[in-house]
Write a structure and sequence with these properties.
alpha+beta, two-stranded antiparallel ribbon, 4 strands, 16% strand
């Protein structure tokens, strides 16, 4: 018998009267990159499985790397530098 991963989420949202938008719902499965057999479960029907996502303004990746977030910050470096200088 296969475990239904979406059922607990549906039960919790129904119990808490939360409306969920499945078109915007994404699934990210975190894994340890040092472990060789990377066994990711199959995607849930109707929910996209992604390897990175932006949560509360921070880019997170499925391998716990911060590279994507730091790369995005470095793009804004010229704009951020001017904030700390006093005006003349």
């Amino acid at each position: 018998m296969e475990f239904n991963r979406i059922q607990p989420i549906q039960d919790r949202t129904k119990h808490n009267s939360i409306i969920r938008n499945l078109r915007k719902t994404k699934e990210i499965i975190f894994n340890n990159p040092r472990v060789i057999p990377n066994c990711t479960p199959p995607p849930i029907f109707g929910i996209e499985q992604v390897s990175s996502s932006k949560l509360l303004g921070v880019n997170v990746q499925d391998n716990f790397s911060c590279d994507m977030h730091f790369n995005m910050l470095s793009l804004f470096q010229p704009y951020i530098q001017g904030f700390g200088t006093p005006r003349s």
